[in-house]
Amino acid sequence: MIEIKGLSKTFNKGSENEIKLFENFSITFEEGKCTALLGSNGCGKSTLLNIISGNIAPDSGLIVVDGEDVTKDNEEKRAMYIGRVHQNPSLGVSASLNILENMSLADKKGEKFGIKRLIRPKNRVRYESILKELDLGLENKMDVMVKFLSGGQRQSLSLCMATMKNPKLLLLDEHTAALDPKTSRVIMEKTRELLERKAITTIMISHNMKDAITYSDRVVMLDQGEIILDRPSSQITEEELLSIYTAKLLEFQRKAV
Fold first, then answer.
1. CATH hierarchy code of domain 2-94+169-256
2. What is the pLDDT of residues 164-184, one digit of tens each?
3. Which residues of 138-225 form beta strands (DSSP E)?
């Protein structure tokens, strides 16, 4: 279980551009469940993920993972138990290495190793087995440089690498936004299959209302750092989400005039 307790975060503090994004914000993410995080740009979605991952430090508050306070853990240490897939398909992989080398790096996360010990032939079969579960043929391209893969193939590889060591939490930061609709659908289906198989607690940022409902257990919508909707995915429709989102967007536009 992941708990955020009394989180506060202000940017540009003390200046005319001060933005108080979170103030005494709290939320709990249930173990083994996928939560879709929605909201307009600037509502706090990515900032929340960055704070959870350790990329941004909160002004105050606690981040608790399985009962342990990890607030002071740096990003490198949190990467041992937090996996992340970014919007850009190239961020989660090394384009200058082949698939085998990328998988080997992910497998060695948190360990000390030399370049000679990175590739172990006995692991190749295991990596091929992991990739075969995706059913995209990547297991037959182990020696292909990642720079020659399509965006969908790179994102699929990133997903495998982020979950190889069974993290306690997986952060999906709009991981299909840069893909075409057809490829996006494939990746979302592969994501669902993987999450069901591994039962990893997941937070998924999405701008796609339909995907948010279809591929998650719970939908949370943020507005200016506050929760304005928190409901099981099975108890809300795409039309309701769109109505709430549109109303908040219009409210924002009126204030900006």
1. 3.40.50.300
2. 888 999 999 988 888 888 888
3. 169-173, 201-205, 218-223
